[in-house]
Write a structure and sequence with these properties.
The chain is of the alpha/beta class and 518 residues long. Helix content is 35%, strand content 20%. It has 16 helices and 19 strands. The protein has helices spanning 6-14, 57-70, 106-117, 139-153, 162-169, 184-209, 217-225, 239-245, 248-254, 308-322, 368-383, 397-402, 414-427, 438-441, 460-469, 504-514; strands at 26-31, 39-45, 79-83, 92-99, 125-129, 131-132, 135-136, 176-181, 233-237, 262-269, 278-288, 328-338, 349-352, 358-361, 387-392, 407-411, 431-433, 451-452, 477-481. Helix 1 crosses helix 7 (217-225), helix 4 packs parallel to helix 6 and helix 10 (308-322) crosses helix 16 (504-514). The chain is elongated, with a radius of gyration of 24 Å. It starts with 5 loop residues before the first helix and ends with a helix.
């Protein structure tokens, strides 16, 4: 079977072809040497000490005279450019600041790659001299620079036509990029390990950015199904099967849409056969009007991104399969559309979940937790995982609490929480643990059913997590509320996109650090 990309999956489902795709720079690794053509980027710490004997000596000497005039001091991510330097075959020299050497961490090198990509001009050759104060950077650091460049280079422009071409003509880009480093062969191998993760982030961003008229539940399922070419086993459950399973909570959300709901199961069997899988679960509301508890019009267009949790799970599964992780991982996404018509559920309706518990739907805009309730139960019943992590753009309340720089972490397990927080710090997809407890749980008690789907105005993110916990058996579980980080988050060196792909690198790192070889 030929490999089917996300773009092809969408094309199959909608009949549309991707007219524009992000142009990825071609990245190669070479031995340290001063480039003889094109553009060169030199890394400089905040002491501005140029290489006295290194491969960038001549380049540094030409830049040094410009530092005082430009005010360049080597702060992290800052840059200074010298055009057509005298007595040099190069078109352009750029100094890129890396700040204080003792503050650089693993994520810094990814960010440096993004900062370097921001300096690209035109479409010629660019060489990054991966050397600091006569000391070459490591193979892993050089590879991270390359990954950062790719993450920065992402853009979603498939629907732009002539206007898009005009914008592309002036866009900063580099088609042939060389990272000159001490260990090019080792850097190339390290980069090959990072590339599937980058592609997973790109896929998640594509899914979140895709408009809802072309990405419904069926199309989303097709995009996930296309990943079978990587060795994933993918199943798509239709509404008929979901009804047989008793997923009344999930199906109730989608009953107002003309587009049928789906549950998609992606399995990666890279560990020992006897090992229980790690389960990743995502909320996939492809568009959320709020249902009969309708949202206000302002900003409703952003609700095409209410499937950011499912996008992160699919992107993470692509990364895990792409690098052939030595772990058993199952990803499950509930994909629905929350619309309004004569069949849409009403406030006050009572639905029966797959667990048998009944839910009074007080607010049809609190729909994501209804989707996750059935998927969480299904996951435990079928796979008996060692732990579960769900991701969802679940509440605006978490943004009130944490803004857009941390996702909320709710969990019944201290060890799992610590592992996720550590993975978030390593990838800079940061988490902040929020409280849970009986006092919050009482907020969702209902007079008419086993529970209601909202707990009142205060502590909304916490009561939502308490709702989900009622569908979790006695296993380690974590809920990540990514409403503030999955879309429209502040731009960074490695992301200029509305859809961020948040969660892909976090989940991949968690699996790598805590599950592989365990």
């Amino acid at each position: 079977m030929e490999e089917i990309s996300f773009a092809r999956a969408i094309e199959f489902s909608t009949g549309q072809k991707r007219q524009h795709m992000t142009a990825k720079p071609t990245i190669t690794f070479a031995k340290l040497s001063a480039p003889r053509k094109g553009s060169a980027i030199l890394l400089l710490a905040d002491d501005l000490a140029p290489s006295a004997t290194g491969h960038a000596c001549d380049i540094a000497n030409q830049l040094e005279r410009s530092f005082a005039v430009s005010g360049f001091k080597g702060a992290f991510g800052s840059s200074m450019e010298l055009l057509a330097p005298e007595n040099s075959p190069l078109d352009r020299l750029t100094a890129l600041g890396v700040g204080k050497l003792d503050t650089l961490n693993e994520h810094s090198w990814l960010r440096l790659g993004g900062a370097a990509a921001a300096t690209f001009r035109g479409r010629g050759d660019v060489t990054i001299i991966a050397e600091l104060n006569d000391q070459p950077v490591s193979a892993a650091q050089a590879a991270a620079i390359g990954a950062g460049i790719l993450l920065r280079s992402y853009s979603f422009d498939k629907y732009k036509t002539r206007a898009g071409e005009e914008e592309d003509a002036g866009k900063d880009s580099a088609r042939r990029l060389t990272i000159a480093c001490a260990e090019p062969a080792a850097a190339k191998r390290a980069f090959a390990e990072l590339l599937p993760v980058v592609e997973g982030v790109w896929l998640a961003r594509d899914l979140v950015n895709e408009p809802a008229n072309t990405l419904g539940p069926i199309e989303f399922a097709a995009a996930a199904k296309a990943l079978e070419t990587l060795g994933l086993v993918v199943e798509v459950l239709t509404e008929r099967e979901l009804k047989k399973l008793g997923m009344g909570a999930l199906l109730g959300v989608g009953q107002g849409s003309s587009r049928p709901s789906r549950v998609v199961v992606l399995r990666w069997n890279g560990g020992k056969a006897k090992d229980k899988p790690v389960a990743l679960i995502g909320k996939g509301v492809v568009f959320d009007t709020g249902g009969n508890s309708m949202k206000t019009p302002g900003g409703m267009e952003e609700m095409k991104g209410d499937m950011g949790g499912a996008a992160a799970v699919v992107g993470a599964m692509r990364a895990i399969a792409g690098r052939k992780a030595k772990a058993n991982v199952v990803g499950i996404i509930g994909v629905v559309e929350n619309m309004v018509d004569g069949n849409a559920q009403r406030p006050g309706d009572i639905v029966k979940s797959m667990s048998g518990q009944t839910i009074e739907v007080m607010n049809t805009d609190a729909e994501g937790r209804l989707v996750l309730a059935d998927v969480l139960w299904y996951c435990q019943q079928r796979f008996q995982p060692r732990l579960m992590i769900d991701l969802a753009t679940l509440t605006g309340a978490i943004m009130v609490s944490l803004g857009q720089f941390h996702a909320g972490l709710f969990s019944n397990d201290d060890e799992l929480s610590g592992q996720l927080i550590a993975a978030g710090l390593a990838t800079h997809e940061r988490l902040w643990r929020m409280p849970m407890g009986d006092d919050y749980d009482k907020l969702i008690n209902s007079k008419n059913a086993d529970m209601k789907n909202v707990g009142g105005r205060y502590g909304g993110a916490v009561s939502a997590a308490q709702f989900l916990q009622r569908f979790v058996k006695d296993i380690p579980w974590a809920h990540l509320d990514i409403a503030g980080t999955a879309m429209a988050a502040p731009s960074s060196e490695i992301n200029q996109s509305w859809g961020t792909g948040f969660g892909v690198r976090l989940l991949d790192r968690f699996v790598r650090d805590t599950c592989e070889g365990a």
